[in-house]
User: Fold these one by one.
Assistant:
Number 1:
Amino acid sequence: MTARQKAEHWSIGSVLDARNDGGSGALLGYLPIGFPDLATSIDAAVALVDNGVDALELGLPYSDPVMDGVAIQKATQAALSAGFRVRDVFQAVEAVRSRVDAPVLVMTYWNPVLQYGVERFADTLRDAGGAGLITPDITPDSAAEWIATSEKTGLDRVFLAAPSSTDARLIETVNASRGFVYAVSTMGITGARADVDAAARSLVARLRGAGATRTCVGVGISTADQVTEVLGYADGAIVGSALVTALAEDGVAGVARTASALAKGK
C-alpha cells in the first residue's frame, strides 16, 4: 500500500462518527460493479458521492445472489453477461478512490472471495484503497479465516443482523464486526418498499443492547423521508435498489438525481 493510499484511506467508522458528531447520520449507497459496463459503474459510484452519499458499497456480481431483489439481480446478471471478472473489483475500487474521498466497501457473497483466495483478495483490496467487506452470506462463527485476515490487513468487516437473530447471535455479530453492523430492516430479499419495516427500530435497539456502537440499516429504503426516519435511530441508512433502478432507467444522470434527492433526508 502506497503512502498516498494510506493517507487517503478512510474507514467507514470514521465517516459514521464524523456524520454523527455533526448532528446527522450517514447515507450509504450501493451499486453493482460492471453495470451496465465497468466504466459507467465507476462513473455512477463517483456521482453518488458527488451528490451527497457519504460512503459506497460496491457489489461484486455473483451468479447466485440469494439475498438480492429483482432490480439488483438483473443488474448483476447483466454485468456477468458483459464479461465481469473478480479482478474488475479492484480496478473499480482504485478508480473510484482516485476520484472521491469516501470509503468504499465491497459487498460480496463469500464464494468469489474463497475462490480468489481470502488473503490475496484482502491484500489486493487494501492496496486498491478499499475499506473492507460486507459479507451477507457468512456468519461470524464460519468466518474465522476472514476475521484473521482482516485483522492483518486492517480491513473493516461488516456482518449482517436480522430481526430473527437471537440475542446470542447479535452479541456474536457485534463482537465480530468492525466498522458497523448491517441491520436488515425486513425479512427476505432487497428491494424498495413503501414502508421500512418497523422491526428495524427494534433490531437497532437490540444491537445497541448487545454492545454495537455503529449500526446502519438497509433493505427497503428508497425515499428521503425513509432516510430521515432511519437516521432518527441508526447511524446510517443504506440505499441500493432505488439507485440501481435509477442507473438502469436513466444512466449516471439518473443516479445523480436520485442520490441528491435521497441526501435531502440526512
Number 2:
Amino acid sequence: MYCRWFDVGCLVLKDPRHGVELTTFSQATPVPPECACAAQDATPSDYPLRWSGLAMTVGQAIQQRAPHVDHADWHSYVVGMSRAEILSSAARALAGLYRARLVPYDSIL
C-alpha cells in the first residue's frame, strides 16, 4: 500500500470584538510514505480514536526508522525547517490578514 500524507497546520484567529474570524494554513510538509504506512499499520482496526487519528504519531514513525531524529521536530529532518519556523511563517501571514482586516488598504492609500 502506498500512503501519501502531508502535515498541514491550521491557524485560526477569532476577534469577536471586531467581528473578525480568519483562518490560514502552513505549508504542506510531505510525510515520508514509509512512515505514513508504518503509523497506519501500527494502529489496530479497533482503535477507538481511529476516526480522528492513529495510535502512533508521524514523529514516532520517523524516529523508529531514524533514531537520531527528535519525534517532536521531525520537520527539520524532512524539509530542513523546524515546525516552529513553519508555523511562524503561517502566523505572520495570519497577522498580515488581520491587520488588513482592521485597517483596510483603501483607508491607507
Number 3:
Amino acid sequence: MAILETSRLTKQYQMGKVTVNALDGVDFIVEKGEFVAIMGPSGSGKSTLMYMLGGLDKPTDGEVTLAGKKLSLLSDHNTTIVRRRNVGFVFQFYNLLPTLTAEENIALPMLIDGKRPKDYRAKLDQLLELVALTDRRHHKPDQLSGGQQQRVAIARALITDPAIVLADEPTGNLDSRSGEEILKLLRRSCDEFQQTIVMVTHDAKAASYADRIVFLKDGKIVGELRLDADATRDTREILKRLAQLES
C-alpha cells in the first residue's frame, strides 16, 4: 500500500530572469514499511523534494498524496493538521526545545495536538526504552550528547505513530559511532514496527541501511537501487552510482 506518492511534481524558482527547475516532473511512490534513501549531488533537489513530501512547501505543479490525501486540495490549516498527524520529522540539528526535558520534547507533538498525558504515557515510556533514554528522561538537551539528542528527536518523530518519517541528513552532525546508532535505530523501527521512512543523505554508508535508494540529478529521478536485507551491505555500488551522477 502506498503511503506517499507524487505525480509530475515540479518546483520552479525565479532567480532574476532565470527559471530554475528544482524539481522537474518527479513521480515517486513509497510503500508502507519501506525505508527509502534519497541521494544526489549538491543542488540535485533532495531537500526541495523533502519539503514537498512533508507539505512544508507547495509545488509549482503536480501532486503529493500523503496518507491518501491530496495536499493540493487542502487549505493551509488542513495541510498542517495532516502533516502534524501523519508525518514525523528528523532534522540534522535535532531542533529540540532547550527548556524542555527529553520526555517533554518527545511528548510535544501530542501536547500541540491537544492530547492528555494519560493518552500517550504508555507510548512515551515505550519510545524512551526504544531509544535507550529511560534514565535520561528528565535531562534537558544541554545535558545530552549529540547522539542522545538525535535519539530524542527520533522518539519525538514516532510519538504520533506517523504514516511516514522524513529524515533530513539525520547523521550529518554526528560522529561515526553515534551516526551508526541512529541508523540502526531507524532500521529497527522499520523492521519491528513497520515504520515508513524517507531519508535524504549524502552518505553511502547511511544509505546502505535503506531498502531502496533513489538517485536525483537536476531535479529528476535518474535511477534507483534496491538493496538486500543485510544492513551491512557493501557500499561500493552506491558510491559507483554517485560518481556517475557527479561526473
Number 4:
Amino acid sequence: MDFLERVFKLDEFDTNVKTEMLAGLTTFMTMAYILAVNPAMLSETGMDIGAVFTATALASFIGTMVMAFHANLPFALAPGMGLNAFFVYTVVFQMGYSWQFALTAVLLEGIIFILLTLFNVREAIINSIPENVKKAISVGIGLFIAFIGFTNAGIIVQGEGVPLMLGDLTSSNAIVAIFGLLLMAVLLSKNIKGALFFGIVGATILAIPLGITSIPALDTFTGVPSLKPIMFQFRFDQILTVDMVIVLFTFLFVDMFDTVGTLIGVSEKAGMMTADGKIPRVKQALMADAVGTTFGAMLGTSTVTTYVESASGVAEGGRTGLTAFTTGILFFLALFLAPLFLMVPGAATAPALIIVGLFMMSPIKKIDFTDYTEAVPAFLTIIIMPLAYAISEGIIFGILSYVLLKIFSGRYKEVPKLSYVLALLFIIKIIFV
C-alpha cells in the first residue's frame, strides 16, 4: 500500500487506496459495455469477433495504464463510440474500403497524435476550430450512434415508399432492445453505477429464452481469442490516396475533440482544473490517448480515446492514476471471460448505443442559436450525420457552411485561418472524390 501511495501521490491528492480502487471498479462497470459493443460493431466489417474482443480489452488496458503511470489521472481509455461507428459505417460500408484500410488510417492517426502531442500542436489545432461546430460534432455523433442502435434493434427500418419507418416492435430483437433501454433508463434515474453494463446483462438474459443467443458451454472457456486474424493488418499502398487523407483527418478531428472535451468535463467535475482553467498534466493525458490509439491499431481495433464514463469513478472519489490502474487491470482480467461478452447479441447492445447517444447530446445546450452564422453550421453538422449516415459528411457541411456564411456576412475575420484550409480541402474532396 505504501508503494501505491508513493507512486500515485495519494496523500498529495487527499485520497487513499480503498477510495481509488472503488472508483476504478465503478469506472470499469460503467464502460465495460464496450467489450460487447465494439466487437459486435467491428465484426460487421468481416473482422473476427473474438479477435476484436481481445484487441478491445488489450488496447483499453494499454491506454489506461499509460494514463495511470504517465499522467497520474483518474481517466480510463477504450476504443471510442462514434469513432468505431465512423470506422464501420462510413469508411467500410459507405466508402467501400476494407477494414484493413480503416485500421491503417487509425495507425497513422495514432502516430500523428504522438508527434503533435510531443510538439504541443494538438492544443493549437483544437483552439482554431469554431466552438459551436465543436459542440455540434458531439451532438451529431450522439444522434448517429442512437440511430445505429435503433436500426440494429429493428426498431427503425428502411421504409416502403418512405426513407424510414417504424419496424415490428413485437419482434424478439425489438423486445430485447426496448427492455434493455427501459432497464438502463431506470437504473440511471436511480444513480446505479454500471447502469449500461447491467442493462446489457439484463437484455442478454431476456434474449436467451427468446432464442437470440445462448449460454456458452464450459468448454468454450479455453483461453483468450487469438489476435492473429486482425493483428498488423495494414494497407500501406493506399496511404497517399485522397480518401485516406479525408478519413485520416476525420479520425484525427473527432478523436481530438472527443478526448479534449472529456478531459475538460471530467476535470471540472473533479475540481481538478488549475487556477487559469487548464487541465493538469494535459500533455501526458493526450499522450496516453495517442499511444493507446497506435497500439490499438496494431492489435486490430478502432481509435482509443478517453471515456466520459470516467466521470463515474471521479464521482466516487477517484483523483489519481490508481483509479485508472484499477480499471486497466479489470480490462485485462476480462480477457479470460471472452465467451460471456461475445454471447451478447446486437439487440442487447443496441440500447447502450441509444443511451450513449443521449449522453452526447448535452453540448447542444451551449450552442449559440441566436447568431445564424453560428447556428446554421452547428445545425447542419448535427442533422447531416444521422441522415447521411456519415460522421465525416456532417463535419464537412458544418465547417464549409461556417466559412461561407462568415465570408458572405462580411465577418471573415472571425474565421480561424486553419478553418479556411480545412474548407479548401473539403471542397477539393467534394469535386474530385
